[in-house]
Amino acid sequence: MRILKINARTVEISRYADASVPGGGLTTTVVAVVTSAERGGRPVTGYGFSSIGRFAQTGLINERFAPRLLAATDRDLVAADGTLDPTRAWDVLMKDEKAGGHGERCVAVGTLDMALWDAAAKVADVPLHMLLQRRFARAQTNRVAVYAAGGYDFPTNDIERLCDEIREFLDAGYTMVKIKIGKKALAEDLKRIEAALSIVSGARLAVDAMNRYSPRAALEAAHAIAPYALRWFEDASDPLDFDTHARLCASYEPALGIGEATFSLPDARNLLRYAGMRPARDRLIFDPAHCYGLPEYVRIIETFESAGWNRQAFFPHGGHLFSLHVAAGLGLGGSEANPRIFQPFGGFEDGAVVEDGFASLPSIPGIGFEGRAALKPLLVDLATQ
Amino acid sequence: MRILKINARTVEISRYADASVPGGGLTTTVVAVVTSAERGGRPVTGYGFSSIGRFAQTGLINERFAPRLLAATDRDLVAADGTLDPTRAWDVLMKDEKAGGHGERCVAVGTLDMALWDAAAKVADVPLHMLLQRRFARAQTNRVAVYAAGGYDFPTNDIERLCDEIREFLDAGYTMVKIKIGKKALAEDLKRIEAALSIVSGARLAVDAMNRYSPRAALEAAHAIAPYALRWFEDASDPLDFDTHARLCASYEPALGIGEATFSLPDARNLLRYAGMRPARDRLIFDPAHCYGLPEYVRIIETFESAGWNRQAFFPHGGHLFSLHVAAGLGLGGSEANPRIFQPFGGFEDGAVVEDGFASLPSIPGIGFEGRAALKPLLVDLATQ
Asked: Domain range holding B78?
């Protein structure tokens, strides 16, 4: 087994289809990893992308990481049974990487890692969540708890459109939603939260400040929203300001969410050591594709478990098919869902059923990106370019 | 004033010219930033590179950061006096960058920032250290304390060649040297250290473990080398393992060095908060080009000063002309020097004088990269490509 070809392409990935809503200028890299493994007489191709919320990594992939995979031999890439082993390929990707500096390259590696898991599941002829359940000895499941994410600031009729979006989520079968705060004045954000609470209870509403508060503003916001007893308050301030986070933990009674902007095991260890987090309460939002891919994500989970946490505290960021498989395959608490935003990657398989806050799982082999009509032309074009 | 063109190129940058010594597979990006400012009827071009010890960032520069500079207007780039202001350009580079994830992009930004300072000093018609002294209100100086770095493991005749290298440094006017440890068994490294100590005293010898020790091995090594009373012991273990570093500080009496693999102000703050460092003793090795460039480096210095440190504790990593200007221009403790390794960037101007451990400063406008015969053809080719 060898990797025959890796094609990578930068694409824009906007928050809403509505161009009047600021898109954030975000991009992602889509990769097609063509292997020498065959199924039905055709080479198995794995697809991955750089998840959402940061930036594309096409340059790092083409310059540094794809060449390592392309140079790898059968011995470097396969398990004892002769099939592609993404955890072995991960060692190839990370060869000669230096300690420290966990940004960007962690996304580049995670993007290729996602494609390798897609290929491995296709070789095994099972959906990824089943491959992960076998590989990591987790119970099988046919559904995952999900919450719908959205609620960015709309430039006009903000409150009305926010409420419309939340009602749409509920109509689609979601029972829990997450909205953004931290960009406007606190009083404005409280109005948004109260509007949302007119539709869902506090136990079904999370807020995400996207790391935008100063230490002082984070503590003020926490004080103001504590009475709402929200499901969780996520990314209040700088993700590396463990001191502020520890003060939040000491003063804010409801759950906090953190981890989306933490990209490695050493950084996750520091969260554990210094950020004052509460195992029975707080939620961990690490994005597997942003933190060096699944092998490092599994090490992060195991590190938290060793410190007394339950893996039910993990709700991977992303809101796309890969996060869903990971949550199902590793027995996590649940997954974010982005049914409306970050298209064509946000959300799950076409026609996915969400009932009472649980999503059904895809049944086609691999991750199932090519099962999405809006995505398939891009992937076919990329694989054959 | 606008940025007219940015050309970036990846080049290999090996430790030793001797191909039998493992080069580390390292690369760097060289950039030429062509401005609309003119001197002598020709556009002013700034040159920068990604320093040494990590990897090239050509992809990130071309995809994400160069386009921002190229789109910037006069208003975004110039100071009140109408000349290029690299600290304003830095805000342009960092626009819409998200919190957390301080790796790779910090090098890409630092590379362009270096070229902008080169251009700004050329516009001002002074060597960079003089521009920095004016800008940051530091006393003028005509020399900088330097130490010679090298001492990597040689594949054959290691001890003999190590001693030859150290003698060469002393013959060239250096009085202090730094050698590498952490790759071999501790007993072997102790032999290297003792061989070096047969030539220089402990007060003139630093060792750098390049973050290679496990927490336990770091503490064992510290215990073993403490009796030598070395100048400093650098990068013992993982740069984000503050806990291990704090234990080293508590048990190891002589100075420690840290910071080379710390790439941002939030990470530097965590070093201050959690790593147990000792202001009057330890040495700070941050690389200005690796940690988002000079504006962020200055903020790191100021943050340490606010915490009771003296900027004499800063010895910037790199061992090239830019580090030398920064050490001179900001009034730091001194600079690394790489006279033999990482060519054609290692070391200072052609014919630089080192006497009694102090290096003379370049006198041509800017950083002076094009004053190096071994470098000039590459820069000319890059600027006109």
From this structure: 3-125+374-383
